[in-house]
Specification:
The complex is a heterodimer. Chain A is an alpha/beta fold. Chain A is built from nine helices and seven strands; from the N terminus they run H-E-E-E-H-E-E-E-H-E-H-H-H-H-H-H. The longest helix of chain A has 16 residues. The chains are: A alpha/beta, B alpha+beta. At the A-B interface, strand 2, helix 6 and helix 8 of A face helix 7, strand 11, strand 12 and helix 9 of B.
Chain lengths: ~290, ~325
């Protein structure tokens, strides 16, 4: 643990809470396993002593901003998480002046589970070049050493190279065990609809059956709703109790959007996401 | 008198059971360990800590058709669901077996849930004692134990020469093969899971309904359904009618009190609209409402929710917190 960084965060949050600039800090504290981290909400200046930051702080806390609308909040954000703040700003979900962003230089996070802390950085961190948050009010920590650039999509290229029937079988095998707990949706900062399509009764797009056909529909539409919006925090895959490789789907769409529109979600709070705009000169990709 | 079954005997016996009935056992599927119908005995996992999901889905499936209604020619017929084959579930841990026994209270009390009752009557449970307690286990604090035979038909406990067999019920005795030798070995001492202070928790919980604790705890809860779906004792469901080609099916699927909108009623009113109210409901159902109605705490200490929760909502910590809050608030 970087004690200097933690003292920096605690001191700042103590001041912000004391002088009433904010009423809550969303950060991290030690989990019940004594080993990893969990989200923590500090309301009183004394509670900031529980705040931590280390390589187990994998959670993207930006999800919670949607629960705290209308409140003055400070939030600890890693670079990847900060992209989700831009996403919410882009989409008019939060007001910039109600959120105090404590950006943290990120040396990467490790694979974690309850009572389990991995030795190596998460796959997404190993090739991540975004070391500094894209939006912040305060920058904590010190710039980490730049990581070696690597191929971001080796596994995607592998799946892409398979024939269609094999890819279909691959996904049906993975969607089969889905129990539709909706953890992937509930943890996603980009999923904030007050009523999700999957729960709509009229029209009933999916229905309540937890079965292969319905699971496939749920998973496919969930992924498409995040095309050009997913910022790659991979929280959905981390949360999935059935180990569905959701990152493959999300990054496939990320890759497509990058190739088609030269756009990556959340890098700027100004640039409109491709599916929220229409330019006359855009090609639709079929007979025109 | 306990019997001994060698490892080869066990394989032969399971092969025999597989011919006669549906055999359900832990099978490794894409990194998960799930109770699934067995097609080959060699697919069964014998050495495991516990399964990803509890075996409750074989009594309360993720999705099932309760009955269908057919009409035509001025005639309407209601066709109830039936359970076609006898089944055996092999490899059930004592905690999970207690979970199933616990579901009997709400499902079999009159008017009983017929399809649940039928599955229960036509399914035998072969339990497997735990050799190790996992860090998240706390079954002994919840009235069970790693070697608790009380809720299975047969309990197997692994020893050097194979398995010590305890035939617990008549249903279990009838399933066992002939000619098993008496076991000379004593049952090994069970592992010791962590203890959680459950003493008096019902009385304590009763006075903490209005504590701000719940809203604060719920801050980090995502209100997904992981905890409920991996829980051996959570049994909430949703029901819907599916019209299809002159036929209507009444379908039941898992649901959970953690879903936003679970209690929303016509007109849009939701009596449990806040995150804190929803989270309190789950823990109060386990620690207060269920025991008030059916005596037992509706938790078996399997620890699956502790392990699976992506934001570390930990029932053991909550029980501890409630005890402390209760002590502070006086009687």
């Amino acid at each position: 643990m970087d004690l200097e960084l933690i003292q920096q965060i605690r001191g700042l949050c103590r001041d912000l809470l004391r002088n009433g600039e904010i009423n809550c800090v969303i950060g991290y504290e030690r989990a019940s396993d004594g080993l990893t981290a969990r989200p923590f909400f500090a309301y009183e200046p004394a509670a900031v002593e529980r705040l931590i930051f280390d390589e187990t702080c994998t959670h993207n806390l930006v999800k919670y901003l949607s629960d705290k609308k209308g409140e003055k909040i400070a939030i600890v954000a890693k670079p990847c998480d900060s992209r989700a703040i831009n996403l919410l700003l882009n989409e008019g979900q939060i007001k910039r002046d109600t959120v105090f962003i404590i950006g943290v230089y990120c040396p990467g996070v490790v694979e974690t589970g309850w009572n389990r802390k991995g030795e190596t950085l998460q796959a997404r961190c190993q090739t991540c070049q975004l070391l500094k948050p894209v939006v912040y009010d305060f920058l904590a920590g010190q710039a980490p050493v730049r990581r070696t650039e690597g191929e971001r999509y080796p596994d995607i290229l592998e799946v892409e190279s398979k024939p269609e029937d094999e890819r279909r079988a691959f996904w049906l095998d993975h969607f089969g065990p889905c129990i539709r707990c909706y953890a992937c949706r509930q943890i996603c900062p980009g999923c904030y609809c007050p009523e999700c399509f999957v729960e709509r009764l009229d029209p009933m797009w999916v229905g309540i059956r937890i079965a292969p056909k319905e699971n496939e529909l749920w998973q496919a539409i969930r992924a498409f709703h995040l095309a050009g919006r997913c910022i790659g925090c991979n929280e959905c895959e981390r949360a999935c109790p059935m180990d569905i490789p959701l990152s493959l789907l999300n990054r496939k769409l990320e890759k497509e959007v990058k190739e088609l529109f030269d756009f990556q979600a959340g890098l700027s709070s100004e640039e409109q996401p491709p599916f929220a705009t229409f330019k006359k000169e855009e090609k639709l990709g079929f007979e025109e | 008198m306990n019997l001994l079954m060698s490892r080869d005997d066990l394989i032969r016996w399971l092969e025999l059971l597989l011919q006669e009935r549906t055999l359900i056992a832990p099978i490794r599927v894409q990194g998960l360990l799930l109770f699934q119908p067995v097609s080959k005995v060699e697919d069964i996992a014998f050495d495991f800590d516990n399964t990803t999901l509890p075996p409750k889905e074989w009594y309360l499936p993720l999705t099932e058709t309760l009955f269908s209604v057919k009409s035509g020619d001025g005639h309407t017929e209601l066709v109830p669901a039936t359970v076609e084959r006898e089944a055996v579930i092999f490899g059930v841990r004592p905690c999970d077996a207690k979970g199933i026994a616990m579901m009997d209270s709400p499902f079999l009390q009159e008017p009983g849930d017929t399809v649940y009752g039928e599955r229960r009557a036509r399914t035998a449970l072969i339990g497997l004692s735990c050799k190790q307690a996992r860090p998240e286990c706390f079954c002994t604090s919840m009235g069970s134990a790693p070697d608790d035979p009380s809720n299975v038909d047969i309990l197997l406990t692994e020893v050097e020469d194979g398995y010590i067999v305890q035939a617990v019920t008549d249903k279990g005795k009838a399933l066992l093969p002939q000619g098993l030798k008496e076991s000379k070995a004593a049952l090994p001492a069970p592992p010791e899971p962590q203890a959680v202070p459950t003493e008096g928790i019902v009385q304590v919980a009763r006075k903490l309904f209005d504590e701000p604790y719940w809203e604060r705890l719920a801050d980090r809860c995502l209100h997904c359904n992981i905890c409920a779906y991996v829980c051996p004792t959570c049994y909430c469901f949703d029901v819907r009618d599916y019209p299809d080609d002159g036929k209507v099916e009444r379908v039941r699927s898992w649901e959970s009190c953690q879903s936003p909108g679970f209690t929303r009623i016509a007109g849009g009113y939701d009596p449990r609209a806040t995150k804190g109210a929803r989270l309190r409901q789950r823990f109060y159902h386990k620690l207060l409402y269920f025991p008030e109605q059916f005596q037992d705490i509706a938790c078996v200490g399997c620890g699956r929710c502790v392990k699976a929760c992506p934001v570390n909502i930990d029932i053991r910590e909550i029980i501890n917190d409630l005890q402390q809050l209760g002590a502070k608030s006086g009687s």
